[in-house]
Amino acid sequence: MTQTPFSKIIAGTMTWGIWGKKLDKNQITDLMNSCIEIGITTFDHADIYGGYTTEADFGNAFGESQIKRKDIQLISKCGIQLPTANRNTKIHHYNYSKSHIIWSAENSLKNLKTDYLDLFLLHRPSPLMQADEIAEAIEKLKTDGKILDVGVSNFTPSQTDLIQTKTKINYNQIEFSVTHLEPMLDGSLDYMQLNKIRPMCWSPMGSVFKKADDKSIRIKKLADQLSLKYNVEIDVLLLAWILKHPAGILPVFGTADKSRITNLMKAIEVQLELEDWFSFWTASTGNPIP
User: Fold this and answer.
1) Average of pLDDT values for 12-29?
2) Range 35-63 average pLDDT
3) Residue 176: exposed, middle, or buried by beta-carbon count in 10 A (0-12, 13-18, 19+)?
């Protein structure tokens, strides 16, 4: 099966269920259709979202919708084990045994009402990962047509290298934003470009709308000025800043607000001028760049 390219901006579903908006079946279907209509066709999941309930909520809506599977791309993640009422887990931990990876992927398929995942990610690195065992699980899932591609999430370059001794990693979903610059400075994004790994980023707005610290105040002040210049909202500029990076980062946004999602798509058209891009970096650090 040929993999369909992901949309340039990805819809994160973490807050669609009981961890956020508590959307019902009709609301999920409506939100999916709204995303698709404006060109957001990729939906990012993880087994743990909603305490292992959000995938099933989404799948129940998708299964009864008129949306064709070929018109969307589904991402999910495995490995994190949370103590919840519906699982016999005593302590927060990670599990990357072959049997668990396969079971988790198959469980996500069942919950999402689909025959395959476009991308399957190892959610967070574990010190007990065995590259051989992970590769065996991934190979079986690929051979059986249950996943089309594989990646990691929140992995450092050395952790990614460990897995890549046995199987190719094509994506890494990391935290990156104008308030979280580390992947741009510690070599992570350089490493991904060198190794043909496509970055995705979660929390692309960073802490700009969450904190009233000096960093956020500086960034908001700059963004307010530039929003007049580019005639777009602040959050659009924050996404445009990410999209300008040559690594080809795919932002995963977390909002479930339809009007805001529509606005975010404007970021694809915004071409930040060079000095404006560096102005955001300077505002983030509070100092001239090195």
Assistant:
1) 97
2) 97
3) buried
Share of the chain above pLDDT 90, in %: 94
Fold of 10-212+235-269: TIM Barrel (3.20.20)
Other Cβ atoms less than 10 A from the Cβ of 183: the count is 23
Buried b (16+ CB within 10 A) or exposed e, 151-166: bbbbbbbebbebbbee
Give the C-alpha separation, 178 to 183, whole Å.
11
pLDDT score of 92 more than 80? yes
Averaged over 134-159, what is the pLDDT? 98
Residues known to be catalytic: 49
Amino acid 38: pLDDT: 96
The candidate with the shortest Cα–Cα distance to 177, out of 203, 156, 157, 199, is: 203
* Residues in Cβ contact with 253 at an 8 Å cutoff, skipping those fewer than 6 apart: 9, 10, 11, 12, 204, 205, 239, 261, 264
Domain residue spans in the chain? Answer: 10-212+235-269
Tell me the β-bridge partners of 173.
Answer: 153, 200
- Helix/strand/coil for 143: helix
How far is residue 36's CA from residue 6's CA, in Å, rounded to a whole number? 12
Element (H, E) at 71: none
**Is residue 94 helix, strand or coil?**
strand
Q: What is the pTM of this model?
A: 0.96
